[in-house]
């Protein structure tokens, strides 16, 4: 998975249509999430598309599997995950993920339908991280 800074560097120089293509490409690069993990418990609420996020790994190296049934939304999920992937759970729990995503200006680049679930994705990731860090 690419780092968020690498993605931001590329994103900055792209036009709107190319940014959509990059998001779709990022979504395709996500690790496959087994169908068995796509349950009500891993579903992110408040998204216009279905989005699932599942934490794996350890407290020292938190790893997420994620998926969506919509290509651009899956790319947005990939952005969120790339901000936190393989970092310590305590660090992720304290991280300002929304600030890390600011260079992408998602609210102005995408429709409100596509971005309405982003705060819920972030909240779920942070909630998982806090729970794992507290073990």
Automatic annotation (TrEMBL):
<dbReference type="Pfam" id="PF02657">
    <property type="entry name" value="SufE"/>
</dbReference>
<feature type="domain" description="Fe-S metabolism associated">
    <location>
        <begin position="13"/>
        <end position="127"/>
    </location>
</feature>
<dbReference type="InterPro" id="IPR003808">
    <property type="entry name" value="Fe-S_metab-assoc_dom"/>
</dbReference>
<comment type="similarity">
    <text>Belongs to the SufE family.</text>
</comment>
<protein>
    <submittedName>
        <fullName>SufE family protein</fullName>
    </submittedName>
</protein>
């Amino acid at each position: 998975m690419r780092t968020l800074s690498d993605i931001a560097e590329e994103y900055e120089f792209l036009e709107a249509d190319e940014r959509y293509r990059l998001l779709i490409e990022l979504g395709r690069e996500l690790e496959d999430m087994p169908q068995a993990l796509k349950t009500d418990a891993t579903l992110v609420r408040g998204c216009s598309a279905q989005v699932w996020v599942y934490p794996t790994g350890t407290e020292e190296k938190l790893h997420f599997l994620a998926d969506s049934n919509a290509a651009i939304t899956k790319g947005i999920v990939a952005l969120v995950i790339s901000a936190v992937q393989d970092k310590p759970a305590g660090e992720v729990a304290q991280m300002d993920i929304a600030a890390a995503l600011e260079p992408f200006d998602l609210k102005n680049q995408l429709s409100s339908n596509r971005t309405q679930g982003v705060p819920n994705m972030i909240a779920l990731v942070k909630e998982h991280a806090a729970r794992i860090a507290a073990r």
